[in-house]
Specification:
The protein has 309 residues and is of the alpha/beta class. 60% of the residues lie in helices and 13% in strands. Helix 6 (194-203) packs parallel to helix 7.
Length: 309
Amino acid sequence: MAGLKQIKSKIRSVGKTGKVTKAMEAVSAVKMRKGQQMAITARPYALAALHILRRTSTSSDVARHPLLRTREKVRRLAVLLITSDKGLAGALNSAVLKAVREELGRLHLPKDHVDFYCIGRKGKDHFEKRGHEVIAYHENASDSAVLSDVRPVTDALAVRFEKGEYDRCLIGYQSFVSTFEQRPTVRTLLPISVKELEVVVSGILPSRGKFADVRKVSEPSILYTLEPDPEQVLRELLPDLLNIQIYHSLLESKASEHSARMVAMKSASDKARDLGKELTLDFNKARQAAITREVSEIIGGIEAMQNSH
């Protein structure tokens, strides 16, 4: 009977675990949809700013701006790494960490020539343990991020890039493709590239459905007369575009996190259900065996009493 009690206890434990994972699956699904909606809501502003940059891309003032200037040789590098603060999301964080490590391997830079700016504890802990310097760290616990939340990181990177302290700035994050697919992505943040911005702005939106019509971002470059002057317009516009790129990457990472956690919790719920069925079957077999044994003992006792007479 001790075996029956143990099996029954396991069945109750698995059942409670299944309820928890089912609840977490539902919560992650809601948060994932909210993250997508936030990206879609913020996109018109990003799209308008991108159109302005594209239309002015033929101007010599654009090419001379420090945030768009390409350096031939990369001697110092900054990496903005976006990961989650929490686990239970499958290979979400490990995949983007691997992609960043591979990119660093291609650049062949010593550790003291690479600075990390981390949004999320997983990335910070990972590279600190490997001897890299984390210049700045911000939690990634909130599900309601706004543009101003990433502004300190944007300003820090822009100022140091303009001063020539960094020759290139990269960003690593999980790009949201679909509910069941997230793609680890490493892009160039600085120098600013119109092509990279187009990819980011288009990134999280569905290819079909009510938001599909806003995916078209290509327009011919047109030379405009800028007021009050090109320098002033670019000085205001480019940091905002950089901020938007980081913000959208954060939103994609958040949507990817909740999606990966939803899938992981669904898998855990399914396994808990299957294990519960197996344990119930084992319990029924053990109980049937116990009943059969007791019946056999009773019959054997009756036969022994009859033979004694």
